[in-house]
Amino acid sequence: MLQQISISITDYIVAGRKGETYQRLLSGSRMADLDAIFANTTGVRRHELNLVQNTSTNGHENRDVILNKTLEGKVYQCQNHGNSSNCDSLENSVENNQENLVDLAWIPLKYYKPADGPHMLRLRNGTMVRYTNFSYFPFTTNSSYLLNNEQLCRVKGELTLLIIVHTAVPHFHHRQVLRETWANKELLKNKQMRIMFMLGRPTNESIQVLLVNESQQYKDLVQGDFIDDYHNLTHKGVLGFRWITENCRNAKFILKIDDDVYVNIFRVLEELLPIYKKHPDYIICPIAKDAKISRNNSKWAISSDYFPDFQKYPVSYCLGPFVLIPGKLIPNMFETAKRTPYFWIDDVFLFGIIAELIQGTTLWPLQIIFQHETKSLACFNGKKPCKQMMAFAWKDDSMHTYWNATLVQYKKLVKKYANPRFH
C-alpha cells in the first residue's frame, strides 16, 4: 500500500560549481537511512517534502535513490533501483554516469532561477521575498492519481480549448449542468473543446464510489490523492498543471474556472482568443493588484511565516474564477511550481508568484465586475444582450438561465461557432 510520510531532507550544492544544484530524494526510506546517507554531506538548504513510502506485499521496502541535476534550466535524473552505488557521489553521478542522466524537462526553464538562499525567493522585478516557514512543493507533483482520464484530450486535429474546473467533491449537479450547457464538448462546430474536473479525495468512502461511477460514465474527472478542502486548492491547481503537461500538450488554450461559474463562451472565442495573435504569452484574467495581506481570522488569513516583510502581496495575481492561459505556458508553470516555496492560497501562488517567475508572461486585465447572482440574473433576463463575460451560478437553475438567455441574445455568434442543434 502507499502511505504518505513527511520527513526533512536537504538540497546540496557542490562547491565550485556555480549554477549547478544537486538534489537527493529517497522514496520509502526511514529517517535513519537518510541520516546515514547524508551524514558526511554539508547541507546548505533545507525543506520538507511529502514522500511516498512504497511497501511491497512481502513487507520489504522498495528503495529508489534519485539524483536530480538542475543545470542551465534543464532537469536531469540519475536513478538506480535497489541500491545507491551509482549515485553515491554527487560529483561522480554527473561527471562519470552520463548514461544515467535523462532530460526530464519538456520545455527548458529559460527564465526561472531557484531561490537565492535558504528562505529567500527573488521575483522577476528584483523583489526579494523572505520565508520563515519554508517548504518546496509537496506530494501532488509526483503522487499517483486516484482517478485519471488520460484519453480526454486525444482529438482529431487541434484542441482549441480545454476547460479546467476546480470542483468540490459533492458538487455533482454543478458538474452535470456545465456538461449540458456552455461547456458541452459537442458545442463547437469547427473547433474542439473539452472539459476536465479537478478534485481531491473525499473523507467519505461512499462518496468515492459515486465519483468512480461518474468518472466511468463521463471520463472527465481527474482526482488527486489529497483531501478535497479549501486549504488544498493549490494542490488541486498544480495537479492540473501536471496533468496537462502529461496528457494534454495539444491544447492551445486553457480556461480555468470554478464549478459555480458561467462563461459566455462565444464572447471568449470572438473577443479574447484573437488577442493571442499579437500577445502569445498573455494570461487573461481579472487581476488583484496591491492586495492587502490578511493576518486576522478571515477566510484568507495567513500567518507571519508567509511574506513577513509585506503588508500587501508583492505580486499582482489573477482572481481564480476566470483565468485564460496559453497552453504552451503550462509545462513551464508546472516545472516552476515544483521549485517554488509552497503557499496555500491558490490564486496568489498559481497566477501570481508562478506567473511572475516566468519572464515574458504578462497578466492582461480582463474587466469583469464580480456581482451578486441576483444582478447577473437580471442582466441576462433583460431585453438587451447582457455584456457580462462571466457570472456566478449558485442556484440550481441559474446556469441554465444564463445559457438559454445567451443563445437568444447572441444569435449571430451562436450561429458562427455552435453546431446547428444548439441554434
UniProtKB/TrEMBL annotation:
GO molecular function: glycosyltransferase activity
Gene3D superfamilies membership: 3.90.550.50
InterPro entries the UniProt entry points to: Glyco_trans_31
Keywords: Glycoprotein, Glycosyltransferase, Golgi apparatus, Membrane, Signal-anchor, Transferase, Transmembrane, Transmembrane helix
Intracellular or extracellular location(s): Golgi apparatus membrane
GO cellular component: Golgi membrane
Membrane topology term: Single-pass type II membrane protein
One Pfam family per UniProt: Galactosyl_T
EC id: 2.4.1.-
EC supergroup of this enzyme: transferase
Family according to the record: Belongs to the glycosyltransferase 31 family.
Stated name of the protein: Hexosyltransferase
Organism listed in the record: Sinanodonta woodiana (Chinese pond mussel)
